[in-house]
Design goal:
Structural class of chain A: mainly alpha
Helix content of chain B: over 70%
Radius of gyration of chain A: 19 Å
Number of domains of chain B: 1
Distance between the termini of chain B: 50 Å
Number of strands of chain B: 0
Distance between the termini of chain A: 58 Å
Shape of chain A: elongated
Largest sheet of chain B: none
Structural class of chain B: mainly alpha
Largest interface: A-B, 32 and 36 residues
Oligomer: heterodimer
Helix content of chain A: 55-70%
Chain lengths: ~120, ~180
Amino acid sequence: MDDDRIDFSALDPKRDPARFKRMVDTIVAGARTPVSAVVFFVHELVSWGRPAVAISALLALTAWLPTLVRNGSNLSQGSLSAVNDPVELVSSWARTGRVPSEVDPLEELGDLDGR
Amino acid sequence: MVEDEDTVLVSLARRGDAVALEALVRRYLRATYAVALSVVRSTADAEDLAQEALMGALQRLDQCREPKHFARWLFQAVRHRAFNQLERSKLHATLLQRETRGEMVESDASSVRLRRRLLGALKHLSATQQEVVLLHDLEEWTHGEIAAALDISEVMSRQHLFVARRLLREHLAHEFSLEIKHG
């Protein structure tokens, strides 16, 4: 630690940790454009060597995209949860080491549109 | 090495990797705020600008030609945005008013006074001096990191820090003595 340091804690946005976390969450949600979410989703599935799952996922996304377009503003506000966000869905599969079956994407994402 | 990590994070974030995006946000939000603060000198406006600039940069990651210099690219964007805002809204004229608005929600009066003193002292520094001292003393970046992000040498970073601290201490002491004098 540097003894000559000027104490800028009064200017530090982290002085309110909850507010700082909300700022981080808002930026992350806003930065994730629908296109980048879809690219990540498909890329992850293809990289797992599961083209059948990727094709299934693309079909599911085709059903899901109208919902995405309708709720585009909501997406940018980070309203999608892990349950109905395709990126979160794939990330959760990756984290748990679970390899999805061909019908999983259709079942998980198809439900979003009330199917 | 931060630049190598940035290259990886930017590559992943370009593909929409949420974890990489969040890592970039956590790494650069306060630094982006520091750069914005050195231009607008209002904590509320600097926070807004930092959020907008960081979000905008992450949405346009494909335009970042040198991912290892992500910080440099990001800081140019936030400076540009901050100067534009100053131009558009003639923010200088309303800074005091906005700071007062921000202070209404601050419960600790001494913290408000200290913040006002710090912002008052910062205006006596050059833009680069402000960025260096804020990145070093607020964000705790090393001179190597600052030099890479601001495109200056480490020697210059140390020199800017030395001068900035001296000037800040002089002006803070002066403002404090005025406060004592006027009760």
